[in-house]
Amino acid sequence: RQKITQLLFNREALTHIASKLAISTSTVYRKLKQYHFREDYANLPEVLSWDEFSYQKGKLAFIAQDFNTKKIITILDKRRQTTIRNHFFKYSKEARNKVKVV
């Protein structure tokens, strides 16, 4: 379990961690979900990248990050448009307007 945490802090991909430790991606994702991150709803980067990844068989999650620094902005369990939209509406209009490229 400590090795999972160490690799997560080294910013390695969940699938890479899973294959490296011979465990399932779901196990890595469950460990990640144990952490509580304080989200900063005041700022968004100018260049935002996002993707979806499989975290359970047949289920995809959504991840958004700062493209330049690779800092994770958020991970959402669902990738539905309403879930993503509602999350980003938590940011101020000014913060959302700072984003130039997605």
Detailed description of the structure:
The structure is a single chain. This protein has 102 residues and is of the alpha+beta class. The protein folds into two domains: 1-36; 37-102, no CATH class. It has five helices and three strands. A hairpin with a 5-residue loop joins strand 2 (59-66) and strand 3 (72-76). The longest helix is centred in the first third of the chain and has 9 residues, at 25-33. The protein is globular, with a radius of gyration of 14 Å. 9% of the residues are buried.
Structure keywords:
alpha+beta, globular, 2 domains, 5 helices
Q: What order do the SSEs take from the amino end to the carboxyl end, as H and E? A: HHHEEEHH
Number of domains: 2
Poorly predicted runs:
none
Count every helix, treating DSSP H or I runs of 4 or more residues as helices: 5
Radius of gyration, Cα only, in angstroms? 14 Å
Q: What would you call the structural class?
A: alpha+beta
Report how far the terminal alpha carbons are from each other.
34 Å
Helix content: 25-40%
Q: Which sheet architecture does the biggest sheet show?
A: 3 strands, antiparallel
Principal-axes shape call = globular
What is the tally of beta strands? 3
Q: What's the arrangement of strands in the largest beta sheet?
A: 1-2-3
Q: Compute the average pLDDT.
A: 86
InterPro entries: Transpos_ISL3
Protein name: Transposase
Organism: Streptococcus equi subsp. ruminatorum CECT 5772
